[in-house]
Design a protein that fits this description.
There is one protein chain. This protein folds into 2 domains: 81 residues, no CATH class; 123 residues, OB fold (Dihydrolipoamide Acetyltransferase, E2P), CATH 2.40.50. 37% of the residues lie in helices and 23% in strands. The chain contains 4 helices and 5 strands; from the N terminus they run αβββαββαα. The relative contact order is 0.16. It holds the Pfam family DUF1523. Keywords: Membrane, Transmembrane, Transmembrane helix. This is DUF1523 family protein.
């Protein structure tokens, strides 16, 4: 029972961490090399694509998508998609896809005369599954060594930690006041043999 409990919580927190890593914004320092528009046919990876831009038809199996090609400070290439999030999830309320594409095109540069930019995005890049992070905003920066403090992410993580602590504290208080007395009474009635639920919350310890 103890191993089942810990396996459950480890898997739960891994999924939760992956969800946060995908959803929360990240900022890359990049040199934009090109911008383009591609016709994309959506398949099994359609969950990783946003909805069509505001005002466009929904439910289509393919559509034109903006892409931004860039080089990171370590010399590795990275490709971003540029799609509206609209009123959906994640709640970035992004409606300026065309404007972002224009700003990105204006920041294009070569390795000989690089113009570095801070590309804010969410999501992952996976070449096997053809998954691209979605660009949220872009702005020029002075150089590749500029420091970007992720204030938004820090605030969100602090608020989430406070929420988790609040829920845990309320649950612990509820358990001590309501559940523990009830379990102790059933424990005595069952001849000092704890129930399966009690063993689960107690970490699988034998009674």
């Amino acid at each position: 029972m103890r191993y089942l409990k810990w396996t459950f919580w480890i898997v739960f927190w891994l999924i939760f961490a992956a969800f946060l890593h995908y959803t929360l914004p990240q900022t890359d320092i990049v040199r934009i090399t090109d911008t383009e528009t591609r016709r994309v046919d959506f398949g099994e990876n359609s969950i990783f694509w946003a909805s069509p831009d505001s005002g466009n038809a929904t439910g289509t199996i393919n559509r034109d998508v903006f892409f931004i090609q860039a080089i990171r400070t370590n010399g590795k290439p990275i490709v971003y998609r540029n799609e509206d999030t609209g009123w959906g999830w994640p709640p970035y309320f992004k409606f300026d896809t065309a404007n972002l594409q224009t700003r990105s095109a204006d920041l294009r540069s070569t390795s000989a005369e690089p113009q570095w930019a801070a590309m804010r995005h969410y999501g992952w890049r996976n070449e096997v599954l053809s998954i691209y992070p979605n660009a949220i905003s872009v702005r020029p920066v002075d150089g590749p060594d500029v420091t970007i403090i992720p204030w938004f992410k820090i605030i969100v993580l602090i608020l989430l930690a406070m929420l988790v602590w609040f829920i845990w504290a309320r649950w612990r208080r509820f358990r001590e006041r309501r559940l523990d007395p009830m379990w102790d009474e059933r424990h005595r009635e069952a001849g000092n043999r704890p129930s399966g639920a009690r063993r689960w919350f107690d970490g699988g310890r034998k009674g």
